[in-house]
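Job type: complex structure
Entries:
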Amino acid sequence: MDSRNHRPAWPARGAAVWGPPILMELPSSVSARLLALIPPAVAINVAIGRIVAELHLPVYLDAVGTVLVSALAGPVAGIVTGLIGQVLTAFISGYIWLAFAPIQVIVALLAAGAAARAGFRGVPASLAWGGLVGLIGGVASAAISYVAFKGVTSGGVTAVTTILVSLGLGLAPAVTVSSLLTDVADKAITFLIVGVALRSLPVRMRGRYPLGQRAVRR
Amino acid sequence: MTGVELRDVSFRYPTSAGNVLKSVTLQCRPGQITWLYGPFGAGASTVLLLAAGLAPRHTGGTMTGAVSVLGHPLDAAGLSPLLGQIGFVTATPHLQMSGIAATVWEEVAFAPANLGWPLARIEQAVEDAMTALGVAHLAGREPDTLSGGELQRTVIASMAVLEPAVWLLDEPTTALDAAGQTDAYRMFRRAARDGATVVVASEQADALADVVDRLIVLRDGEVVLDGDPMSLLAGDDIWEGGPGSTSVAGLCRDASRHVDSPRLAMPYPVTIAHALERWG
Amino acid sequence: MALAISMLAFLLPGPRGPLLLYAVTLVAMPIAGVGRAIRQGLFICLPLWFFLFLLHGVLGGGPTFGVGPFALSRDGAELALTQAGRFGAIITVSLGFYHSFDASRFLNAAAAKRWPLHLSYLFVATLHAVPAFLARTASILEAQRARGLRFGGGPVARARAVLPLTLPLILGALAEVDERTHALDMRGVASTRLRTPLMAPKDSVLDRVVRWLLWLTVGAAVVWRMVG
């Protein structure tokens, strides 16, 4: 008798959160699933941005796919999702936006950390973790905006920066405040959406993603 | 040598309440088309996933027993050693596309290119596969512009290009019209004649009754019937808690409950040709 | 070329360097047959330029000079011009590359250069997936509108519409991953063998010469910035 007890072939618990295997050396079972998961996740980033624009909301929600993949498949997959998305944005709108690639890495790592701590188990936890990620990501965004972009990035955030500067705040503090304001709200809503999605997964699908089950404490 | 063999296999998905397959032992031989038949949840699709080495590797779950394909057992990682030699087709063609091909030709060439075949071999194999499935005229088309039937033919061609030794087919002709179904099964019949092991999981009894060589009926994860398709489809056992038989057999069976006539008695005619033969 | 210009935009001293580089892209794009990159680049750059001049020119500190009714910061205006040139050059040449990009050619070139399939696959598959998802989004918007979901009203009402619009997209995408995984696996996407290029990508002598010249220019600019 031969007994094979398999979790779906994701990296083992410790490795999933803190031991990133190199993409090229991932076992075949993992790479096929990631190749199937990552393109639609990046497309979700873009599509949800379109929804947000339709609703005229002052957020971007362009990291939903990245956070989702991090929660389902670990930080490496999340980082790859975020970077591919950033490369795509740069490809379509200008290489200059590659400067924000480190933010994708930060968000993916923190989202995986949140998932490892059941950070998506409910609305309060999702919002709290999203706010924290927004805080950290916002500080990093502000640094990149200030150094590489001299405070001018996209319309909404830059408009807030301009208002703050016109009120007498220095450029660096203004960029920091505007980045934090938008990023905290943006990531809080992102984590809320991903949390609801993870908790809504049908039973059959949940079994494919043991990391995702841990993210919602199941 | 057996083509696909399951020996005392029990299997449970990570979130299943119980075993989806229960001590299943079956053999599908090379040179034959074997039909796995059962109602939804009977386990036919799971048998195909196990034979392909996709379960439990991708699906997770617990398996006991042994699975081997053309005499090769699944390895320790659950990977079939014949990956690249197995044609696997399901009912949803748009989910089986490569996602990167600009033309139908590139779509069909995707698998052999990944396996590092020489270009000349790829070109010949692609032409042969596209001709066999009647999609040669679509070679330059973008896959996104194809109809459902054209897409399914392209998907089957994308596996046929590998000249697989084993075909694992899960409702492969759902998206095809009658002509498409005929072309597809003609190709599978030819493959079987050339020595391939062809296994089909389908509930389309009418389409398969006179195409297949052997019928295995599954119910609740167990093999309940195994043998000659015509004999099994003409009997009553296939109706007892099972998937039922063809429309013609069903009509006769229902009619026989209301009309006492030897022409409606078992064995029921399975196809229209059988019925015409019996009823003159 | 796009990468080289992006690097030169930061290496060349402003504002003349980046502005000259932008002028070069304005000439090069039509020659390369991607003149529409200029128009699209302007569409992206104009709001950025507006804020640059507002934030640094009008609101910037230090000595000023008059331009009509406005008093502009000298240092701020120089910074704004430098950054505007950078934005213009990089965004325009990136869009030019985007419009001349051929996914098949890229895949075959990557295979010829023995890149692992995963990287080129992820990029091209994502490029193909985005339009399909945007179409799906449009369908979801219509379907939810038909079910009575309101998209207007105050921010809270609009925020409430986010979940009913985003969840079907996410759950639908995840539902398809299993079958896509199986199909990709069976088609050898995880094969360790080198992928066969399906066509030999052309790399003319002129292409190679231009590439080398560009990288030499970037190298010279790096050295000049370090020494100068």
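Summary: The first strand of chain B starts at residue 4 and ends at 12. Chain B has nine helices and ten strands.
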